[in-house]
From TrEMBL:
This is Melanoma-associated antigen 10-like. GO terms for cellular component: nucleus. InterPro entries: MAGE, MAGE_N, MAGE_WH1, MAGE_WH2, MHD_dom. Residues 130-327 form the MAGE domain. PANTHER family: MELANOMA-ASSOCIATED ANTIGEN 10, MELANOMA-ASSOCIATED ANTIGEN MAGE ANTIGEN.
Length: 336
């Protein structure tokens, strides 16, 4: 499935006051060694939809001081020129809190339920560039994902209405679903043009049951996994927080998709064993870093990460150089 790539969709904007409050809060917090990798058990959770509320997570999240923010500002890992270039569009993708869309008129095949009654609409920015059809199609796809139903080309066209706009709108929504929600469309019935919605990279966790229920959160997890891989297998915690701040995702501030991103990352993602969080050896004062958890290698591969990023940017997987060679060696080892 080939899609041209656009760099416009939804805006990911945080409340400036919430950002200021959060930064002040972050500057006064201390690292909690109880969140290290020693908390990870040796077996995976029994269900891919197991979630852990903030009440089940007692550790204090790490802080990011203003000086550390300055140190990490250089060499932004999500700049358009970086291997994570596709994610540079994320700050321009999702906006503001969920809000009802008066223009939403997408109906579900099941009893005429309006998709926007199940999943609230988006507010599309910037003004003048928005298209309610993009909003409605995202809502339809999220509804179909939640109901575990196929979506047909006819249903998609019913939302887009004008076939001449089909390619542009579908491409835009397709990329947003991948980057923001970690969901992609797979063509399962070519003759009927029907698609199934699945998590990217074969990740089984989607966070549908955590804080903001009914909204997949795989997109944030995939971003972290890609970042860790491209950075050589481990990333300082302060770099992760800085990267998310650049994207408008502020730990400690409620996000309309991810709720408290800090709780999601240090709660669900650790408990589900997708991430390991540990103290950097011999660091004084103590600093912390993120690594892949054991569940990542069980569900996906480095080559899938490379192919995913290459598909987003329209580049050749071989252009990832040493990381591609590393992924290739892993594939060869798996075949032996």
């Amino acid at each position: 499935m080939s899609h041209s790539r656009k760099r416009r969709c939804f805006m990911l904007e945080a409340d400036p006051e919430a950002q200021d409050d959060n930064q002040g809060h972050a500057d006064t917090e201390e690292e909690d060694s109880s969140l290290s990798s020693s908390n990870c058990s040796s077996s995976f959770p029994s269900s891919s939809h197991t979630s852990f509320s903030s009440s089940s997570f007692s550790g204090s999240p790490p802080h990011l001081s203003s000086s550390e923010e300055d140190d990490t500002a250089a060499g932004d890992p999500v700049s358009p020129e970086s291997p994570l270039g596709a994610y540079a569009s994320l700050p321009a993708m999702v906006s503001a809190p969920w809000s009802s869309s008066d223009a939403c008129s997408v109906s579900s095949p099941c009893g005429g339920v309006n998709a926007c009654q199940v999943l609230p609409g988006y507010q599309i920015l910037p003004s003048g560039e928005g298209d309610n059809r993009v909003t409605n199609l995202v809502n339809l796809l999220l509804f179909k994902y939640r109901m575990k139903e196929l979506v047909t080309e006819a249903e998609i066209l019913n939302v887009i209405q004008n076939y001449s706009d089909y390619a542009a709108i579908f491409s835009e929504v397709y990329e947003c679903m991948q980057l923001v929600f970690g969901i992609e469309l797979k063509d399962v019935e070519p003759s009927n043009h029907a698609y199934v919605l699945v998590s990217v990279l074969g990740i089984s966790y989607d966070g549908m049951l955590s804080e903001v229920q009914g909204v997949p959160k795989t997109g944030l997890l995939v971003l972290l996994l890609c970042t860790i891989f491209l950075r050589g297998g481990r990333v300082p915690a302060e770099d992760i927080w800085h990267m998310l701040n650049v994207m408008g995702i502020w730990s400690g501030a409620t996000h309309f998709i991810y709720a408290d991103p800090r709780n999601l990352i240090l709660g669900d993602f650790l408990q589900e064993q997708y991430l390991v969080y540990q103290q950097v050896p011999n660091s004084c004062p103590a600093r912390y870093e993120f690594l892949w958890g054991p569940r990542v290698c069980a569900e996906t591969s480095k080559m899938k990460i490379i192919e995913f990023l290459a598909s987003l940017s329209g580049s050749d997987p071989k252009s990832f150089g040493a990381r591609y060679e590393e992924a290739l060696r892993e594939e060869e080892e798996r075949m032996q």
